[in-house]
Design brief:
Elements (H helix, E strand, L loop, with lengths): L1 E6 L2 E4 L4 E9 L3 E10 L6 E7 L4 E3 L7 E6 L4 E6 L8 E12 L2 E6 L3 E6 L1
Parallel strand pairs: 2-11
Antiparallel strand pairs: 1-3, 3-8, 4-5, 4-9, 5-6, 7-8, 9-10, 9-11
Length: about 120
């Protein structure tokens, strides 16, 4: 079994920065993809950024130039550096991952989320 735990959320003023982390633990042989999603009140969950084992990092257009995704495979951890935050970035941020558990097995799941609130 695999667990994902997000951290780093909080309250910040507009223009500020936060760094989110998503740590994976459990039966992990390797991590294929890890993604950040967010869900604002009353809105659908949306993809914010994605990173693959091949080093292909992608961020959504609406955060491009402000958010950066990265991963540390030695720590099984993914990060989201968020700069120049805006009130519309307020949401619960979730990570998910596709994990190779060894022996041909895979696991796909979500963390519990971390709340980001940006005040104007």
């Amino acid at each position: 079994q695999v667990q994902l735990v997000e951290s780093g959320g909080g309250l910040v003023q507009a223009g500020g920065s936060l760094r989110l982390a998503c740590a994976a633990s459990g039966t992990i042989f390797s991590i294929n993809t890890m993604d950040w999603y967010r869900q604002a009140p009353g809105k659908q969950r949306e993809l914010v950024a994605s990173t693959s084992s091949g080093g292909n990092n992608v961020v959504a257009e609406f955060v491009k130039g402000r958010f950066t995704i990265s991963r540390d495979d030695a720590k099984n951890t993914m990060y989201l550096q968020m700069n120049s935050l805006k009130p519309e970035d307020t949401a619960v941020y979730y990570c998910n991952a596709l994990v190779n558990t060894g022996g041909g097995g895979t696991w796909y799941g979500w963390g519990q989320g971390t709340r980001v609130t940006v005040s104007s």
